[in-house]
Amino acid sequence: MLHLEKVNQANWLDVIRLSSGSDQKNRIFEDFIASNCLSLAQASLSENWTTKAIYDDKTLIGFTMYGYSEELQAYELCRLMIDYHFQGKGYGKKALRQIVEKMQSQYGCSDIIICFMPDNTRAKNLYESFGFKDTGKTIEDELIYSLNV
Description:
Keywords: Transferase. The chain is α+β, with helices and mostly antiparallel strands.
C-alpha cells in the first residue's frame, strides 16, 4: 500500500539515490526537477518545507516536498518525484492524492499550487487529470497551476 514517511536518518541516503531517469543519476538539477539531495538541503534551511519519502509497502519509490512558499505566498507542492524504475505504474496519481490530503490536514489549506517546466508533458497531464488548473502565471520559466480543494 502506498504511504508517506518522514525522511530520517534511516532512509535519507536511499532517498537521495532516487532519480527521475537513469541518465539523471547524481545530478543536482535533473531535466525537469531538482534532485532530492538539493530538495533536502533546501528544506533544511527553512521550517516551511516538509519532506516525505514515498513507499509502496516497504519499497521506497519516490519523494515529495511541500509547504508554504514565501516567494509565491501560497501553499505549494514543491516536489513530486517517482523513481524511474517505478514510473508508468500509477504511483504518481496515488501519491498526489495522499500528498494533497496530507497538506489539507497539516495546513488547513484550500488552495495548493504546483510549478513545473512547460515541456514536462507527463507532469502536466498528471496534474490536469487531478484537477490542477493553469493560472496563466509563471515563475522562473515554470508554469504555475492551482488546485482548489
